[in-house]
Amino acid sequence: MKWLKCLAIAVIYFLLARISYLTTLPAHVINGPALAWLPTGFAVAAILVEGYWIWPGIMLGSLLSAFPSIETWPGIAGFVLADTIDPLLATWLPRRILGREFDLCCGWDVTVFILVVAFGSSVFSATVGSIAVILAHGNDAGIFWQTFIVWWVSDFLSVLIFAPFLLAWSHKLNTPAEAAGKAELFIGAGICAGMIYFIFSMPLGKDTGNFIYWLIPLVIWLGFRAGRRGVSTGIFLLAVITIVATSLGKGPFVEASIEESFLYVQSFLTVISILGLLLTAALGERTKAIQDRDNFFLLASHELNTPLTVLGMQSFFLRDLMEKDKLEFLSPAQRRDIIRINVSEIKKMTDLVTDLLLGARIVAGRMGLELKPTDLKQLVATVICENADITAVAGVQVHINGDQLRGNWDEAKISFVVKTLFLNAVKYGQGRPIEISHSVQGNFVVLNVQDRGIGIPKELQSNIFERFGRLGQLRFLGGLGQGLFISRAIVKAHGGDIVVKSNPGQGTIFSVKLPV
Amino acid sequence: MNEAVSPGERSTILVVDDHPSIRDMLRMILEMDGFKFEGAANGREALDLLPKIGRPCMILLDLMMPIMNGWQFYSTLKSDIRYRDIPVVVLTAYSSKEIEMPEAEVLDKPIDFPRLRELSRKYCMEGKRLSK
């Protein structure tokens, strides 16, 4: 099936290349680069959806599309090399930079998409392609920059406009549903179509360029109400209409020369597609923030529900006994149990509220430190002692290594960090021994908390220090999922850092670096 | 308090919940009501425990648990001919529609005690009364 898919990709690539050639600049510039080279955007989307293995399909498509217009072998080789490596680079680089799969969901991903995928990787193909053209045309260095610019712009425009459109419809990326109902979408699409018809059908010679700004509120409406699919489809259709109309000598971009007209078209399409991408990124972040908040409420109510359930049971049980005059039936052991459970459940609720307050203070930028000479060894021993009951229930052995070591730290907050890391090690450590050690390295003391438990999957490692980083996973393990977020903020406020090394199935080491 | 069941014929109620405090409190309440209590911290533990204890008259089941959650335990239980007709009461903050367990009773968290008592009487005492 894979070869069949490669073949299909090659055919689509070839057809898109034929369509793109219709927008090629006149032959006196060069043969090849078109106003928007659709195959690049298609190849980027195809690799993101299918994987790197489809590169032979892209190469074959590129080879087929090179033949009619490029006559020399160095020219063909350069063309094919540039067009095959560009989408591979464009999909590999952002994954490398972000350290994860990238989505067009939010600000950072979209920034990387615009700067690295669209503008950056196209520089490579434009350079290789332009060198190939020079070789093919006999070392006429004069056309290098001209070719480079045309090639670069046509590649990045394709990535900016065509790839998001294909990805939005591919189901590969997380595409949020549109907010607008069918009637609103229908009316909105009608207004867009009417506006575009009005702008592109105005007679030449009038100053029609100003009317193009009327499209901006429509793009914003698409972003807000029609979701990522709506805005990417709208911009793609607008690009097609703009290019076709300008080629036919209609619309606000028509200038004296075709090169000048196309330059205005490209500049307009670049701006409008970046506007669309940034808008959907902002809305994606808003959606994610709302989801995080709702998940957080769910988690917080779940976490508070358990101690409340226990305390409610106690009250009911004791009231029932009292009403039936049977309180004396409680054995001394049962009385001790009731007090023990009461204390431990109230402590759980107090800890949750402390977490909430600390998290809120950090977000508001109001976390103060009360620095005083603190003995780290003593601090670690105290934390472990205070949580001995939890360790005992989990049946975990704890080994502590390290000499007495004093530093100027906020004792309560560093205790919070050690407690968070230690309890995480107990939770995820599968009952295997936990090691807590510290040593001096230069001007810093490094505290390691190591477990040999389930480890952290690679794809989750990058966001465990985010607020609510654990949301959605392992909810039964308790906590609000912001312990590591708070811990990192505390350590950073001390001028230190906290890092994680983890192998799934083998365990995790958290290293806290604090200035001595 | 249950005076209807004498110590010699105490029915067993199995509580499957990963929170030790909830198990401890339910133990006190159920034992005070005259039932025999058995506890398990997750579905796996409960399945291991079932053959070793007398047939429980009712299972109180939490949903969010590590190792084997309530849904997995419920479907395993219902596919086992030996245990499929043991009544299951789910302890949850979800609604009965959300949990998708058609035959199970739902007991809201925080626990509604009169209803817990009503259910334990319904499943663990009515049969005995009838047989008397």
Widest beta sheet: strand line-up of chain A: 2-4-5-7-6
Quaternary status of these chains?
Answer: heterodimer
Number of strands of chain B: 5
Largest sheet of chain A: 5 strands, mixed
Taking the alpha carbons of the first and last residues of chain B, their distance comes to 20 Å
Rg over C-alpha atoms of chain A, rounded to the nearest angstrom: 31 Å
Strand count of chain A: 7
Strand coverage percent of chain A: 5-15%
The H-and-E topology of chain A, N to C, reads as: HHHHHHHHHHHEHHEEHEEHHEE
Mean of residue pLDDT values of chain A: 84
Strand order of the largest sheet of chain B: 2-1-3-4-5
Rg of chain B over CA atoms, rounded to whole Å, is 14 Å
The coarse overall form of chain A would be elongated
Unreliable runs of chain A, pLDDT <50, ≥5 residues? 27-32, 471-476
Helix coverage percent of residues of chain A? 55-70%
What's the helix count of chain A?
Answer: 16
